[in-house]
Predict the structure.
Amino acid sequence: MHEPEAQPTAVDYTTLPERIALEDTIATQESQHAPDPTMGRDTETEFMVRNAG
């Protein structure tokens, strides 16, 4: 029979890596403004006109 494989040693998280300054970071994707979901319409007035009776 063969012996069971040794378990890998546990990772030590007692010391953290050095902090990175915000100035040293860069965006990985260009960001864009989200499109207007109402596309410039006054949805409250449209709702009132549709449901006015």
